[in-house]
Records
---
Amino acid sequence: MLELEHGFRVADVHTRLDPDEEAVAVRGRQVSPERLEREMHQAGVERAAASPGRTPADEGYLRANNAVARLSVDRPLLAFARLGGPRSVHRVVGPLVNPIVRPKSHHTTAGDVEQYAYDDRYHGFTLDPAHDGLPTESVVDQLAAVGDPVLVHAGADCPPDAVADTLLDRGFPVVLTSFGGYPLQEELMTSALEMLDAYDDLYLDTAYVPDRDILEQGLLEHPDRILFGSGAPSVHPNVGVMGVLTLDVPEDSMRRVFTKNPARVVPGLLPDL
């Protein structure tokens, strides 16, 4: 694929790195760190946040997180630690109604979050509540104490209002993937955009959002809250970058979504700004 020439410094908040054959078998697409780095270069992406893909439900992410952190060394990748928990997103209806749930051995603990946070190999956290479950309150409290950004896979199985009930207004930046509406749920995307007025620490990434109207609305109405995310390797970074480049928005808006906003939320992405 040809390299894009666009003149922007691009930082990507949303990529996946499958560190071994088992992870690939679960996710179904193998992309080596070298290939991911090559595809980033083709798209003009200088640095990207990388999280492990899904593991089996009873395995947890300690080994996968360590592998991604190891593979990110000396590459333009920033490791995000993926977390899991015992709470089901479908039962989140308020603190007085949630049942008491007990974490299992493979679920993330508050101590795990503390260790990840003070290990300089990690720059943030990733949650996929629909697949991995929501963490316990003690884990969320530790995320608040740490203050690092949390990328949350939101969409039809984890709508923005469920994220609001459990993770927002806790003192750490929350980035909803795909405008909160994967796959192509425009109503959820609109809901997430409206939530930006109510939550100062909420951000949206652009991964898997092909609707130009909704992207333009986000960039024009909330220029400081939209972050570029490619969704690589499921989507080639070129596709994500072109999706922004073809929008009818001012050049400054593109510079914000590609560079300024991601670097502000995840400082390590472009540390020399």
---
Amino acid sequence: MTFPVALPMHSLFDLVRRHADAHSDRSGFAPTPFRGLGAVRALYPGELQVTVQKPLIAICLQGRKRVTIGTNSFDYGAGEALVITADVPTISQILEASPAAPYYALALELDAPLLRSLTVEADLRPIDTAPIRVEPADTDVMDAALRLLRLMERPAALSVLGEALLREMHYWLLTGEHGAAIRSLGRADTHAHRIARAVSLIRQNYASTLRIGNLAAVAGMSESSFHQHFRAVTTLSPLQFQKQLRLIEARRLMLMDSQGIAHAAHLVGYESVPQFTRDYARLFGTPPGRDIREARLSV
């Protein structure tokens, strides 16, 4: 096996592999004792996974994955990192994985308050940039992650050094390869932070009628400016964002709670079931009935 970065990637891969193999749940996720940090394993190319993704960085150590936001798709593989800096609806799929060579990744949910503190301390300038990027994995970030995961083998040191290493990992994220994409999370005066307030309101009220004026007021912007910056931050219009939230929640209701198609559609705010079916097929590539049957069979 070869790696784009010999060290610390090889050592990090070994730790992630051992932890994921021992602790992965049915979904392939293996949490760690550290806040927001977990390992991911997949043995086969998978079905579409749909969620509203929180800001995170995912470092791929083996295999390949595709993440789609709106009409934009991003593929990343071993030695690359996916950075998401906004709460956005995502559709993801493992592209390369097998029992002989599983997909492995290390994922960290970004701690916005910690990033804000570090941004002020380091006097870093905010940068408005695309909400999702694929870049080479940063060596300093991987080194901090490696030392963090090694603490799992030394419980006495974990409670003493864990938070400090997590803080260090966020510092390297801000100042290294991924800094341009992440710095907007560390400042309260950026467009991304203002749009995040509106996104939070949409998420809380996704089944209700969307009033752009209210959202613009929450973001402290004019309606025209709000539309422009909302699309820049999320790649979607507010209405598209709400629609995807509704469809993602409807899929969860049907798959996890066994709700019927019509009932799920009405619960998330649709008045027309045929319109719901058309929108669902457009987003997920297949009508809801067939999609849920296939998803249950795959499980």
---
Amino acid sequence: MSHPRISFTNRWMFERVMLDEEVCRQFIRCVLGIDAAHIEYLNAEQVLEPAIESRGVRMDVYVREGHRVYDIEMQAAAEPLLAHRFRYYQSSLDGATLVPGRDYDELPESFIVFLCAYDPFDQNLPLYTLERRCLEAPELSIDCKAHWLALNAHAWSALPQGTLRDLLHYTQNGSLGSDPLVRRIDKIVAEANSDRKWVDKVFYCVSTIEENDARRARILERQALKKGLAEGHAKGLEQGLAEGRAKGLKQGLAEGRAEGRAEGRAEGRAEGRAEGAREAEERYSALIAHLVSAQRFDDLAAIASNTERRSALFEEFGL
């Protein structure tokens, strides 16, 4: 059975490419500015034998050099809780590197890098460097030697000419360019695609990724529903106030202004809030069902915060 070409953004292809020590060293240099003399791979076996784990955390590229450890991840699909993933991977790194009985100062310096094929934080930045800070004293440096970085391939053009710009451009659309690192990566991708036995294993694993997609869909659905309920309550309150005023005025003419306003507002708030929340929830649920059925997970992620996109999708599905 023939398969389409596996791209660099495929997680197993990314792992295989990064198993090339020179590529891994150059990646670390261009992203972090660190010259790694010798790299020790801590997960090479799982890279060469693609498989879906039943438990634990699966790090794409987990390497060590000197007193530093690196976890380098490819994130091709939109992840609604990327910050939570950073936190989870950090705990896994620390738990794996600090031997029981050792002191905290023996924790190695760690770097977690997510190479994203989308904008993970919607700020149109090519690089997000996430460090700990104190809200009360932003100038205070909390140097715990744990560093989180997210690369946004969509914003490659915002970078100056150089290896990182070309790497993000290649990640976004496969544009080769002339950079030696990108050309070396593309050569490994081509060689890996000619390894049909390995390719078959990758596609078998890809077929099971639907479970991860379903997990993302559940998270997005809960977020969208929560957003819809909040908007429904707000709309219901607004309508309730308007209807309450109108009804209160009408009753006030017959029974007295004071009693009419109080009674009308109370009844209007209750009726308006309930009706608004119910209509909004039904409308959101219908939209979510359409998007999940169509596997449009990017749109599912967008409706929670992008009001224009949400309105366009309501119109598209006639809701």
---
Amino acid sequence: MRYAAIDIGSNAVRLLIADIIENNGSVSFKKNTLIRVPLRLGDDAFIQQHISDKKKSDLLKSMQAFRNLMDVYKVTDYLAYATSAMREAKNGEEVAAQIKEEAGIDLEIIHGSKEAKVIYASHADQNIDKSKNYLYVDVGGGSTELSLFSSGQIMASKSFNIGTIRILDNQDSEETWNEMKDFIREHTRGFKQLSGIGTGGNINKLYRLSEEENDAPMSFVKLKSLYTYLTSFSLKDRINVLGLNQDRADVIIPACEIYLTVMKNAGIKSIYVPRVGMVDGIIQLLIEKNL
């Protein structure tokens, strides 16, 4: 069996095709193909509250390509979710209807609370001591999802309109930053030795740049020094000298700022980076749905 996950984010759209493995009653998956297209829907959605004809056309073409690939790979089930950008675009539902009609893909525009649940379903904590206390931090182009866990139980969860594309477009508000800081301080106050779990493309890239070994957590100090190092380069040099992808070289800076802010306000000294994201969570939901 093969399942597919489609994630329409504010920075990029992704397709993950996964092979489903059944072994002695347990079901897992192996990533077969992952495709990422940097469409930047957030540039339209956060400034104009509208997906432009150009972006809509690119999104439709991407979805038609994803549909064709799913057919070729003989995918047996899929889920397609859209997040922050499509949530805020006034024509989001209209675009979703067009995708259904022209690409044959059922697309659900999900709220921040469901987004946090999907990300948690990725089992980012499976190799981590569940008896400890963790703050999950997922940073996207349009929003940041925070979930506090203690002894494997969810204690609090919230989505905030703070994301990398939103910051680059100056569409983040001081009020929302303060709201996020208040939420962190209020809910983490009673927890000593809180660790972080970071998901999202940017933290994965930062982790690779940190050269940590054997899945060791990345320290706040290391992340801060990486931030200082990256900001010492111009955008052009982050692409040409450091070899970052064009669509990663700009967003990695605001992503760093969000993770550092969260860690500082929660008193987190180190963050685990399990290198999973939204698409992994979607595949996991498909496994649970089809059990």
